[in-house]
Amino acid sequence: MDEEYVPNYRVEDYQELKEGQATILFPKNNEVFYNPVQQFNRDMSIAAIKTWRDTNNEAKMLRFNKSANPNKAAPSTKFTILEALAASGLRSVRYAKEIEDIDFILTNDLLADAVESIKRNAHFNGISQNLVRANQGDAVAVMYAHRDKGAFDVVDLDPYGTAAPFIDGAIQAVKKGGLICVTCTDLAVLASHNHPEACFAKYGGNPLKAEFCHELALRLVINSLQQTANRHKRYIEPLLSCSIDFYVRIFVRVHDKPILVKNVASQTGIVYHCRYCGTFATQPFGTVEPGKGATLKYHVSAASAAEHTCTQCESKLEIGGPCWLGPLHNKDFVQRMYDAVSSTSSSMYGTQPRMKGMLKVILEELDDVPFHYSHPELCSAVRASCPPLTKVNSALLNAGYRVSGSHTQHGSIKTDAPPQVVWDVMRSLVKEMGRSPKIVEGSPADRLLAKPITTEISFDQHKDANPESRRIKLVRYQMNPEKNWGPKARHSEAPKPKNADAKRKQQDRSHTPEDSLAASVPEAVADSESAAELDTVSNDVKKLRTEDLVKAKGPSWKAIAGELGIHGSPSKVRRRWEMLQPMTTSMWTKSEDSDLALAIQKYTESGRRLGESGSWVKVAHMLRTDRSPRQCFSRWTITLLPRQGKALPFTRFHKIRGWAWSESENVLLKATVDGIEHVQDPVGTVSQARKHEPWLLIGHDPEGQLLPQFWKFIAGCVQTRTAPQCKTRWQTICKKAQPATAMSLDDVKRLVQLVKIHGPSWSMLATKFFMGRTARELRGNCMQWEKAEKKFAVNLLDIDPFSMIRDYKGNSAMRPTGDDGFYCADGKLARVGIRGKRGPLTPYFMALAKTKSLGRGRADVTRAIGPASRGNTRLLSNKAIDKLVAAISLHKNDWVSISREVGLPIPTCRRYAEGLADRLRSIQAVISDSEMDKLAAASKPEQGATHN
Question: In what order do the strands lie in the sheet with 174-184?
Answer without folding.
Answer: 132-136, 102-109, 79-83, 152-157, 174-184, 247-255, 235-244
